[in-house]
Amino acid sequence: MDEANRSDPPKWIQQHAVYQDLMHLDVGDSAQVYAFFLVYMDLTEGEEIAAVVGVSCPELQAVLLEGREKEGEPVQMIYPLPSHRSIKHRELRSILDRGAPMLLCAVASDSSLVYQTV
Questions:
Q1: Which DSSP helix (H) or strand (E) runs through 113?
Q2: CB 36, CB 80: distance < 8 Å
């Protein structure tokens, strides 16, 4: 997802309603928005997590996902992170301080996804 090595997302992604909504959140990091979209599609298409919604995280200038693995279970925060970006302890803490368990998802340049519970 390195900005210099990644072209714009395919047209079908750019036209998707969820992607367009994300672009209106003015995150400022197109690589993170693209990572969010890939993770969103993986979770909703695979039906791994129910009721997935995007949540703005201004302190990280990022968009997080929020959802439940099963109905009635607590909400989880999912942080889609392009694999070329590093993350600092205080950034993780700002997400964990929201009071929900966190799932970190590293998104590789080939669109591979790796999930890690934090």
A1: strand 113-117
A2: yes
Pairing of strands 50-57, 62-68: antiparallel
Q: Which residues of the chain have pLDDT under 70?
A: 1-7, 23-28, 47-48
Mean pLDDT of all residues in the chain?
Answer: 82
Give this prediction's pTM: 0.79
CATH code of the domain occupying 3-117? 3.40.1350.10
Q: What is the 3-state secondary structure (H, E, C) of 36-103?
A: HHHHHHHHHHCCCCEEEEEEEECCCCEEEEEEECCCCCCCEEEEEEECCCCCCHHHHHHHHCCCCCEE
Please give the pLDDT value at position 26: 64
Paired with 78 in beta bridges are 65, 103
The residues spanned by each domain of the chain are 3-117
